[in-house]
């Protein structure tokens, strides 16, 4: 006989839900033994717009290299950051 699970509250925002799960054990709310594996092959990560100040010369070089690779310069910059994070942290960013 499995222990009765607590009811998961309704959250107004993702931030509110994120804060809740930081301090609560999901095993008190979900029977993971009966859970199914779910695959989301087309799921895209949530993006957040940031502002970053770069030297004009660096932006110029970045745009030149991106043009040679026939990709947008912001995409190239994300690739560079991702590769460096993977290198530094040993994980896929």
What does this structure look like?
This protein is an all-alpha fold and 93 residues long. The chain has one domain (14-89). The protein is 44% helix and 0% strand. Helix 2 (56-69) crosses helix 3 (73-89). The longest helix is centred in the last third of the chain and has 17 residues, at 73-89. It starts with 13 loop residues before the first helix and ends with a helix. The model has no long low-confidence stretch (mean pLDDT 91).
Domain count: 1
Basic shape: elongated
Q: List the total number of helices.
A: 3
Q: Measured on Cα atoms, how large is the radius of gyration?
A: 21 Å
Approximate strand percentage = under 5%
- The helix-strand sequence is HHH
Please describe the biggest sheet, giving its number of strands, its sense, and whether it closes into a barrel.
Answer: none
N- to C-terminal distance: 41 Å
Count of DSSP E strands? 0
Helix content: 40-55%
- Low-confidence segments: none
- The multimeric state of the shown protein is single chain
Instruction: Quote the average pLDDT.
Output: 91
Structural class: mainly alpha
């Amino acid at each position: 006989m499995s222990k009765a699970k607590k009811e998961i509250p309704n959250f107004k925002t993702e931030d509110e839900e994120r804060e809740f799960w930081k301090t609560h054990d999901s095993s008190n709310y979900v029977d993971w033994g009966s859970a199914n594996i779910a695959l989301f092959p087309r799921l895209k990560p949530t993006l957040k717009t940031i502002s970053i100040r770069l030297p004009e010369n660096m932006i110029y070089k970045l745009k030149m290299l991106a043009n040679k690779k026939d990709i947008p310069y912001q995409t190239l910059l994300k690739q560079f950051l991702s590769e460096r994070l993977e290198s530094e942290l040993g994980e896929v960013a």
